[in-house]
Amino acid sequence: MIEKLNEMRDFIKLYIKGQDPVIDLVCKRIEEAELGLTDPSRPKGSFIFLGPTGVGKTELCKLISTYLFGPKQLIRLDMSEYMLEKNVNNLIGDDTGYLGRLGEGVQNNTGKGGIILFDEMEKGHRRIVDICLQMLDDARITCGRNESFCLKDYYLIFTSNIGSHKIIKAASGRANISTSLLEKIVLSEFIKSDYRPEFLARFDKLVMFDFIKPAVARDIAELNLQMQCKRVGEQAKLDISYSPNLINTCLMNGYKRELGVRPMRNYVEGVIQRAVAEKILSGNDDSHLILN
Q: What string of pLDDT tens digits covers the 292 residues of the chain?
């Protein structure tokens, strides 16, 4: 475990670009938890990942889960599915015995611990906040059939794009915007959105992600090209490479400051898959393909 923890930051930084302070902050807390130094009566760790859209918040959750527990130990709850009060029982179950998505996820977890991700928390009904208070305080959740589950071996991570429109407006015309200003804007929007201060105070860390800068976006474009060339190449039994010009094209089409690099993966996948499909359909049996 010691060796794995020592290598965790380097592993994550291979895939999450431009967020080194965030990665360091989160990894410090995880190191303390995995070494058994945190309060055993609470979840291993609890975080809110805040900031602009498309900067790596959800991706960081996935990477931490994959590295520490394996991808199947991530219970991802999309809060857009629980916008209405009538949908909340889909999350925590009801008197019929249905455990809900969360209860079933914990019950079916074949390993010990993992991550519970509440993705885009601002979209969920406010009743979910009350449910989460129990989870954050006592590391337990009561679901259908009044069945309780212990969450002390879990990390609870909430992501939110709240305040993104204000962040974009504040950043307009600026080359950079300070993390302190980002945090001020986001916390102000939280208060306006009726999130109680005691809810925010229960988290171990409020983590502020930065905008993706153009130079970082270029690195992300190249990383996506490398990963997708490898994946599609293995599937099609081709040796796929690309020119520097394609990196520029992906950067132009897959990155916007206000959207981050959210469009990048789909654009890169589309370019590579289309080129490989056309090569196969043409009957060309050359095992090499260079993308321009």
A: 899 999 999 999 999 999 999 999 999 999 999 999 999 999 999 999 988 888 999 999 999 999 999 877 899 999 999 999 889 999 988 888 788 899 999 888 866 789 999 999 989 998 888 889 889 999 999 888 788 889 999 999 999 888 777 776 766 656 566 677 777 777 777 777 777 777 888 899 889 898 888 899 999 999 999 999 999 999 999 999 999 999 999 999 999 877 789 899 999 999 999 999 999 999 888 889 999 8
* CATH number, domain with residue 187: 3.40.50.300
Domain count for the chain: 2
Contact 122, 79 (CB under 8 A): yes
> pTM of the entire structure?
0.88
* CATH code for the domain of 286: 1.10.8.60
- For 24, 43, 217, the CA distances from 147, given in Å and listed in that order, are 37, 18, 46
SS3 state of residue 41 = coil
- Write out the two tokens for 259: 């959207």
- Which pair of structure tokens corresponds to residue 82? 């629980």
Q: Do 140 and 226 share a structural domain?
A: no
Per the CB < 8 A criterion, the answer to whether 98 and 105 are in contact is: no
Q: Which of 11, 63, 58, 64 is nearest to 34 (CA)?
A: 64
Q: Which residue has the tokens 């897959």?
A: 254
Question: Which domain does 19 fall in, by range?
Answer: 2-208
